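Record filed below.
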Amino acid sequence: MTRPASPSAGSPFWRFSLRFYRQPEVADACITLQEQAGVDVNLLLFLLWHAIHKRALSTPEISELEARIAPWRNTTVVPLRTMRRALKSPPALVGGATAELFRTKIKAAELEAERLQQEAMHELAVPSLLGKDAASL
């Protein structure tokens, strides 16, 4: 997950993620898990969010959710992240300031892709996994 924007919009899960991610050392820990262990931080945050609400997802539910989100993550979030990282050392073809401006736009697109993933996770999981408790989230 990249550094998040304003918590004013989005699902309760997205707002939780933004607040949680801003805590000291959380961003660094999440980035380390993402880069060194291949952890989907959005999925990790989703499981944490459920745990805080005293709800546990079963292994089959987690597997189903992972199967549903993997195509978006793999075709959208990860390529944007890869491009953003590559632009830290841009090719000489484009000037540094221009490349940094473009990198900032890619970073915003990556964050939006992560938000869309989280919104979809919330929509997929809340009604099907929580049933009548869904209204409380």
Notes: The radius of gyration is 16 Å.
